[in-house]
User: Fold these one by one.
Assistant:
Number 1:
Amino acid sequence: MKRDFAVIGLGRFGGSVCRELSLEGMSVLAIDMNEAKINEFKNIATHAVIADATDEETLKELGINNIDHVIVGIGENIQASILTTVMLSDFGIKKITVKAQNDYHGRILKKIGAHQVVHPERDMGKRIAHSIISNNILDYLELSDEHRIIEVKTSQKMLGKTLEQLAIRAKYGCNVVAIKHGEEINVSPRAQLQLQANDVLIVIGSNEDLSKFEKHLVIDD
Ligand code: ADP
């Protein structure tokens, strides 16, 4: 089913969201107050309109009320981001995703009705930091302030060992939820499964427990 999206603010983040959604064949209404931005996106988005998103009447006229999911990419102008989000929430939009500039901005956005708050620079910074710590850490997904999921490649310390021998849950308190072996994904790995080079473990746990796991088993000395 084709869903309708609107992207407000076509900076680096909003512009990239708009481009990808359009490439995936979604219907996208692109809004920015900057004419040059709208010219850049007029052949990419379904509709591209120059408008100030903090103007309630304009948003109504654009039919934003009928859109399933609105993404607000207004970055630096925090006041405009907050005003726009409040209006979208009052309109009863089903899904509102907003880019936050910092933690305080993020907290306010949640309080005023954003369903999803994203911190692209902060999250990418964390991802990069983890991949720098070890080449074996392939990806990183934050579930909450305290929990995350990581994807790690079999380290030298794990190679040839079974999950039972590694005792990841007993020793570090984290759970191996799946193991990727080439194209195959094993979602309920047995304790006797022996880890091979280039296998990828998907591990869930608290930040503290995963840090211990990374330090002792993932990072090769
Ligand atoms: P990024 O950091 O993702 O590049 P920016 O803050 O640089 O984000 O860009 C935000 C975009 O939002 C700009 O293109 C700007 O013209 C647009 N914008 C800012 N305020 C408004 C507003 N009130 N209405 C519509 N677009 C806006």
Number 2:
Amino acid sequence: MQFNEMNLSAELLEAVERIGFSEMTEIQEKAIPPLLEGRDVIGKSNTGTGKTAAFSLPIIEKITEETRHYVNALILCPTRELAMQACEEIGKFSKFKKCVKPVAVYGGASMERQIYALKNGANIVIGTPGRVLDHLRRRTLKLHNLSTIVLDEADEMLNMGFREDIEAVLAEIPEERQTVLFSATMPPAILQITKQYQTDPVMVQIQSAAKTVDSIEQFYVSVPMGRKTDALHLLLTDKKPASTMIFCNTKKMVDELTEALIARGFPAIGLHGDMKQAQRTQVMNSVKSGRSTILIATDVAARGIDVKGIDMVFNYDLPQDHEYYIHRIGRTGRAGKTGTAYSIVSGRKQEYELRDIARYTKAQITEAAVPTASVIKENAMASLKEEIMESCAMEVSEDARKLAQNLMETGISAEDILSAILNKRVADTMKTLPLFDIPRPISRKKNGKQETRNTVRVHINIGRKERIAPNFILGALVDATGLPGSDFGKIDIYDKFTTVEVPKDEADFILDAMQQEKINGYKVSVKIHEERGGKEERFSGSDRQRSHRDGGRDRGHDHRGGGKGFDRRGHSSHDKRHSSGGFNRKKRKG
Ligand code: ADP
Ligand code: MG
């Protein structure tokens, strides 16, 4: 259906046409008629479906010369970007209707300027709940004539803890009003709000999720704990996506991963809700201009942000909500293009989670191997060859030709010269690659019996202060080294460090394998523990924990003695893989 088939005024149709819209999106087609009638509406639809026009066109349509002097509509959004974005769009839609004046209010920006704008004839206010409430309490925003309130991305606002603010705002506005709610998901908390604050609402929803996801190839890689960044590095190097989004669950993780990828030479940039406005604008500009091709974001920060042409999405952390999986991967494969999504999982718990996601979304998520250095090299060589063949077909600068002649005159053969140049190029690609495949050491079992081995203690620089439990330590050791859990002995956790008994002949290997390991999110350094003649206790302070020298095993953590925590056979994701997955499992390499 075209916009001009809708009962909208000529000014609006003209503006919409100028923007370049002709066909309405599904949500617009379904929501605009009841909104024009003044009905309450619940709209369920994903990001990028055109909700802004859906709710704002009817609002703009209803503003008249008589009603222009007060705030007709209030739109609550979860983030500053969304408020600004919506305000900008409303500005465009009302280009030919001069009486409409949208104003955005949000935290982290000058209060004075907002107060000035509100005083100067604002009749549509778009804002984040906190700042709107702030203005209401200062009486710089008056809503007694309000006729429409819109809760945009309502689920996200609840996730961000805006529930009380939203309810406080709802309590301040006239009861006779139109209440509109848009949300990508409909958790019970949302339904409760609609029940409490809406009257006889019309439900509009679009069943697009499955359709959009069809064009996206979905994979997962399963990697040892602490190796997600390495796996990502290898995948990015091998697949060379032109534009990617990587999702993390926390701001901290966004920062850490951005830093790590930049350090490895990737044009990455992070976006999260804690950033100052200027910073966020900078981030978006950098992405839109193509300076940064890897955008790392939390769900909240990414919500509603319009980035085009993403060809690959990575779930660095699995989404906490199953529906988010669909929203995240839906960032790629848009506008008839195909896209690819990779989820990186680590450990059995995450594999189970992903299996649940696959079941819930009815998606085919196929296991893929992390590309090895040799695969990457092969692909890099192939594309280098292609690149050179292409260059051969192009004009060569005078300078380049002179230099070539110069080199040939030295008497070195053309093949040698070319090889030298290529060698450098290949080496450049390969030099920074992380070592991913740690060779598994040979088993120490002899005649079915475990050999008695000399042990040493290794020192890991995290302890009770970091809330470390023995199974975290053992899990990380097993994952990083591929050694069986039974190779590790007593684990003693002190305030600031932990010691683990390990076979002496494996100690160097273990130190090496643990180099880039993270335990419970902490980067650790591992070294041979310097024995201090039984004086470790002095590090413990008030700590009741004592080393094995002065107590029974209930205080130490000898997991081999049937202690608590970890699977005694030392299973890790290497050793035992459940096979009852609801998702496909390709044969693993290596
Ligand atoms: P949502 O709020 O659902 O995430 P937006 O309202 O931000 O979606 O719209 C997403 C993108 O689609 C924007 O770039 C917008 O300009 C564009 N868009 C919206 N409606 C139409 C339409 N009818 N035709 C073409 N493009 C549209
Ligand atoms: Mg929106």
